[in-house]
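Milestone M4 deliverable, item 7.
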Amino acid sequence: MLRLPIVVTMFASILVSCGNVTPTKEITSTENKVQDQPYPMQLTEAQWKERLTGDQYNILRQKGTEPAGSGKYDHFYEKGTYYSAASLQPVFSSETKFNSHTGWPSFSAPINSDAIRLVNDNSDGMERREVVDSKSGSHLGHLFDDGPKPSGKRFCMNSAALIFVPEGSKPPIASK
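Output delivered:
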């Protein structure tokens, strides 16, 4: 009998997850339109595998998604900056982080408009906006229109795609 509440809870978390929300509206010019230029950071797959952990590689380079509630930054609220584990560039600030109750770390805005690119993602039978690192094109997560005001945006990220650096500390020098 205890299995039924567990199954119901798991099903509910899937419904509100990053992968199952209404698609975002058209991106405006102030929200970083998809750019057609190549990414400045170009590595071979062998170089990526050497640079990243297995989990990082799966998410950043193969567009994987960590299970809901499993990421270390889901319920994490220290002040600081989140860097892309691929390029080591800053992508989000703790100032825009909020609890979306989805099981993934969520932000209302990137650290600046040049830190990310938005890419159409029609995988898994859904229309979504993929959020990628602007230097390497590596998958960070997805963007949805169910975030807090004033932006209404929810940048739903994977913890393994990010490296957190506490306020006042030096930026990361390695992904692993």
